[in-house]
Amino acid sequence: MKNTICTFTFILLNILLISSVSNAQGFRLGLKASPSLAWMNPKTDEFTSEGNSTGFTYGLITEYFFTEQYGFSSGLEVSYLGGKLNYPVDEVIDDVSFDELERVYRLQVMELPLALKMKSRDILGISYFGKFGLGMGIVLSAKADDYFSASQGNSKETQADKKIMGDISFGRISLILGGGAEYEIGGGVSIIGGINFNNGFTNILLNNNEVTGKRNNARTNYLELSLGVMF
C-alpha cells in the first residue's frame, strides 16, 4: 500500500510539472523508445558482476529552452534494467546445501530525469546537443532468476521468475550523461538520436548477506541508444 501511494504521488507530481510549463514559450513535448545494455556494479566483498543484460526504456520527453541554446530536459520514463551478480549463500533446497548463487535481476523502474541540455545552432537542419543531470526513480517491480550451486558435489538448482521486492531498495538516484543529434523533418517535428549513460550511485540492494554478515551493496547502470520524436 505504501509503495502504491508513493508511486501515485510520483506520477501526480510529474503531471503537475508538465502542466505548469506546457503553455510556456520554448516548451516542447516528445516520445522516446530506447534499447539499452544494463549491468550491476557490486560494492560488497565476495560479490562479483557476472555480465550484462539487455533492457529497454520508453516514455515522455519534455524540454523547456530559456535561450536558443540552453534549456532543461525532463519527462517521465519507464526502464527495464538489471544485471547478474554472484555471491555466497547458505541455502538448503531438498536436503542439498548450496553455498553460491548467481542471480539475474530484472527491474522495472519509473524515473524522472532532470537535466541541463546544451544545443548547437542548426546546420542544414541538424543540431547537436549534450546533457547532464540527475535521475530520480522508484522501483515498480523486481524479479530474478536464481542459479544455485554447491562447491562440493557439483549440485545445481534453478528457481526462475522469483519476486524479490523485499531485497530491493524502493528508490534509485542516478547521474545522467548524454549527447546526440536532432534533425528537423518539417512542420515543427524533429527526430532525435543519441547515446545516454545512466550511472546509478545509490545502493539498489537491501539486507545483509547471510554468510558474511556484510551489507548487500550494488549499483545499477545502463547505456542506452536513445531514439525519439519531438513535437
Describe the structure.
- The structure is a single chain.
- This protein starts with a helix and ends with a strand.
- Helix content is 9%, strand content 66%.
- It is elongated.
- It has one domain: Beta Barrel (Porin), CATH 2.40.160.20.
- It is mainly beta and 231 residues long.
- The model has no long low-confidence stretch (mean pLDDT 89).
Q: Alpha-carbon distance between the termini?
A: 37 Å
CATH topology: Porin
- Based on Cα principal axes, name the global outline: elongated
Helix content: under 10%
Mean pLDDT: 89
Largest beta sheet: strand ordering: 1-3-4-5-6-8-9-10
Helix/sheet category: mainly beta
Number of strands: 10
Query: H/E element string?
Result: HEEEEEEEEEE
| CATH architectural name | Beta Barrel
What is the name of the CATH class? Mainly Beta
The proportion of residues in beta strands is over 45%
Radius of gyration, taken over Cα atoms and rounded to an integer in Å: 21 Å
Oligomer: single chain
Please outline the major beta sheet: 8 strands, antiparallel, barrel
Total separate domains: 1
